[in-house]
Amino acid sequence: MADALKDMYNDEFLRKFAKKVHEVYGIFDIEKFISITIDDTWDELKLMARMCRITETLRLNLPQKYEDAIEILFAIDESCVGFPYLFFPNFVAMYGQSNENWELSMVALERFTIRSSSEFAVRAFIMRDQRRMMSQMIEWSKSSDENVRRLSSEGCRPRLPWGVALTEFKKDPSIVIFVLEQLKRDPSSYVRKSVANNLNDISKDNPLVVVEIVRRLKGVNAYTDWILRHGCRTLIRKAYPEIMNIFGYGELLNRPITSSASLSVNNSELKIGGSCELKYNLCIREGEPIHIRIEYAIDFVKARGKISRKLFFLSDKTVVGGKCLTGTRVHRWVDLTTRKHYPGEHRISILINGNEVAFTVMTLNP
Question: How far apart, in whole angstroms, are the C-alpha atoms of residue 297 and residue 302?
């Protein structure tokens, strides 16, 4: 995805942006800005590296006094909206961390996040002065603007994708949780999704902390319940016992969930790039209705022969005892940017509430 997104930074985009700067800062040299940015190494740069290159070149061509440069960005930011303009807050992160610039940088990050997002930029400030920046995040969590409230959560995610991991928060998420507490009933779905993603990050390093939060807050508010359920998705995929019990999934310990189960594949051998159809039949045990999550898992063969399991969601629902469920799913064995396929025997399983109930195998050929 990032490889495709990086192409949004091209000559056309830079030229349009440079013209906006030139309109408010007449000595801004458009051609110089573009030629320095898109040099012989440009094609090799990934998305975030291109963003940083633009930021650095912008610095070279704007006034060297930080507050003067920010004023120019303030003059055009209303017309610079969306993901491509992440280099606005990145400019703040790269050049505005000093104590003398801190307050102006906070104003800039708040302003820029409304147009684009400052979620990556705030992390540099957290790592420089955690206490001071997290106090700011708490203040932002009380903002009337949903974009600013979302920033207070998204920016301190311990494992924000594409962002630098916040190692201290992976060890101890207490201050992060304090921020999330301010947002647990937020009326904005945009904010709630971020809070849930943050909670999901925390669950990967501190599952017991998240279990305690869910026990304390579940049932308090409908918005909170949505956050908790979405924030526990990794723990549910891993069939973490306490979480499965809290969310009412079927009892795993007393007896099997199914009375019978089968899984078949229409092709026992397939070439990389092809597709197969999986067919499953699951008969649920007799008795009371039961909440189940159905997934299929593939143990992918890796380059050196090791196995890596990947889960694929099928269904999450409550079914009556004694009911038989059937279904099919087409799986495509096409190489992706996030997954490359290798020849070998692949084990495919059906899981209910994290427990394997049936499996089959197929061979993938070059």
Answer: 15
